[in-house]
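Hi team,

Filling in the usual template for the complex we talked about on Friday. All components are listed, including any nucleic acid strands or ligand strings, so the model treats them as one assembly.

SUBMITTER: L.P.
PURPOSE: interface mapping
COMPONENTS: two
RESIDUES: 855
SEQUENCES:
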Amino acid sequence: MELTRRSLLALGCSAAASPLITPVALAAAPWDTRLVVIILRGGMDGLDVVQPYGDPDFSALRRTLSQGPSDGAIDLDGFFAMHQALADLAPMWRRGDLAFAHAVSTPYRDKRSHFDGQDMLEAGTEHVGGGVRDGWLNRLLQVVPGAAAETAYAIGLDSLPVLAGPAPVSNWSPQADLTISPQAMSLLELVSERDPALHAALAEAQMLDEDTGMQGASLQKQMNTIRQGAAGHIKIADFAAKRLRGAARIAAFSLNGWDTHRGQARGLSTALGRLSQTLLTLEAGLGPQVWGKTAVVAMTEFGRTARENGTRGTDHGTGGAMVMAGGAVRGGKVYGTWPGLAEADLFQRRDVMPTRDVRAFAGWIMRAATGLDASVLEGTVFPGMDLGTDPGLMP
Amino acid sequence: MRFDPHFADMRFGFGLSPSVAPPVDAAALLDGLHAPDEIAQRFPVEPYQLFQARMVESQRLMKQIRKTRGTPENEIPTKARRLVQKDARQAMRQWLVQSMLRRAYTPDGFRERLVAFWADHFAARGKAGVMRRATSPYIEDAIRPFVAGRFSDLLQSAVMHPLMLHYLDQDRSVGPNSKRGKVSNGRRGLNENLAREVLELHTLGVGSAYTQDDVRQLAELFTGMSSKAPRGFKFRKDFVEPGSETVLGITYDDALKPAPIRAALEDLSVHPDTARHLARKLAVHFVSDQPPRDLVDHMTARYRETDGDMTSVYAALLEHPAAWQREGANMKTPAEFVGSALRALAPNPGPLQALKERQVQNLFFTPMAVMGQAWQRFDGPDGWPEEDDAWVTPAGVVGRVQWAMGAPRQMLETLPDPRAFVDTALGPYAADEVRFAAGAAESVPEAIGIVLMSPAFQRR
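RESULT (copied from the run log):
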């Protein structure tokens, strides 16, 4: 085809009318509960986040790290206490909108690698590489009728394998913004047409950009906004809340900084501070009504060694903790079966013994949210998982 | 599917340049790796040897701060230390510019690509104070001189480097039964971080035949490796766990010196799993996310025949027809995209080198963060992802568009004619629609941006 300005303009118009670019009328959401999945990358030390200070063997394992309420941790139930960096969440706990599960893990064992651990956590099955390339949240979308691209959002600059896969999802970072002339945009579409991946990313960006409300801001101004963006997690939580108030039902993003090999007291406080601000921003942004039907699940690839190491930190371990929040969660409770911390009770005499699959908790939450059958959760979403008995997480 | 100078420059270098000719054949690509490193002299980056002076000064001032705490004199060293840190931060900005200028003007683009590849394979960064700025100096000393020799030398150089020992906590790892371990009353202990990553990332690769016990044994063998500025590597006998260690069936005797550690790294470097892991990683990086099995086999075989002579392995890559297949070509990473854009635009080095910190921030640092790759701020020791999916995201692509349309006019006094720039940047790979769009855009900056955003420029 001979390209002229006229034929190009025609092309531009038809591209603008394509469903990829035009925001689709909000499809009826397939279900009403909001799910927020936060991947805590680096291996969160469950023992320090939810401290079993009532366990007689706990204090001997932790030389310099917090040993419960005597070190400022917030008592939860007389046995467990939460890390003092989560103090701002105490009202949420008292209201019954915050819960934990302890001694949980993925099926990942022995090698304790972040990269494998995260792969397994996000693939949702131990058969990573055995043909499984999609994430469990994506498989959920594949089986729920009526899910569309705007049902689920992967937010932030990190990649999120948990949402990756054949079911269409939306990706966005509130830190990006597209401000160019409409004509440049149609020319960009034209030149990227023979590269479907590039073309699709551009189209999606254009659609998302229409709601981020930074249009017209100069490049310089945007750059300055991003520069001040140490608080990126707050922007992400804000954006997630905005989408979830609309047609979105799933938002996923990650929080990093949990790999506390040394100086854990300081590193973990920073990471928990971010988690706490994230949950509070979500709650405020969603408003009481939507927060009331929201379930937040924060999970990590593995726990850390029960014993503090030689550098005031902890090394990669096995059993850990997960954090759940939202009005849809029956909170004010630490779920799970506590294995004890005596030498013989530890996994390989070094890590907290996992007593339940972390996927079972996520599975029961998804079951309550979407009404999916247990067999679908055990067979498709989390292949090879045993859902077990209902922990009663959701009313 | 054989050697093509333009394509060679794109796939194995930083793309086409208006002032530097592409390589004439595969032998020229390989010879370039052994030629004198003139581009490094023309755009110097501080070597780690010198960088350590900054650390010494910072430590000296820290001592004074502690000594004068609570007194009025405290302000003097506090301010001085802040200056040392600021100076290092500004220097780091300059090294970014120098690295990009090397990419823009080198006749040996393959060397720059390999330096970036191996710096990512051995990703290391400082965690506090001036050390946070040490990555470029580390690459300069520990990676750059070794990319075309034996992998064993590169491995030893990177793994035993002070920055790596610091990044993966090796310098804090103390054998529980060592002299130091015994008197510390259990407060100092073993740290497995480096040992694990050496097996999982640097040599054998994840999923290969090592066990938790091998990790533990290697961690015990590694005890003693430490560093002290300004001398660098320091072997601390008092940290060494006594007794021999067995890693993957080979026993290394206790020697209270680094020789057994070097021997273990040598053995790991020639392990068949290492050969396959590295061959595959190179093929994924240079050719496609899904490299043909035959290509990986060919490179693996060459690696094993030569005990990991990297130039021979690169030769195996270049001589294989699959290396010249354009289907499934990878997306450039943001840092590669920016480097290749500079090469195509060929801005004057002087004004770029004179940019103030804030300007470098706005021109390079922040845009690359939006593209998804904040310069030298990888999340973990596995460096940046290779998969296209990690880069072709809406936010990442927007970051590229913003930069492609906004940055060139900040670097050049006059932008080139977009119609000519199509040929400069894409050579024989300019598609009709790109040529058309370059002439049809409303403004020159947008036209230049469109050329830089075209698939032929975004992929390599």
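MY TAKE: The mean pLDDT of chain B is 94. The CA atoms of residues 39 and 106 of chain B lie 6 Å apart.

Thanks, L.
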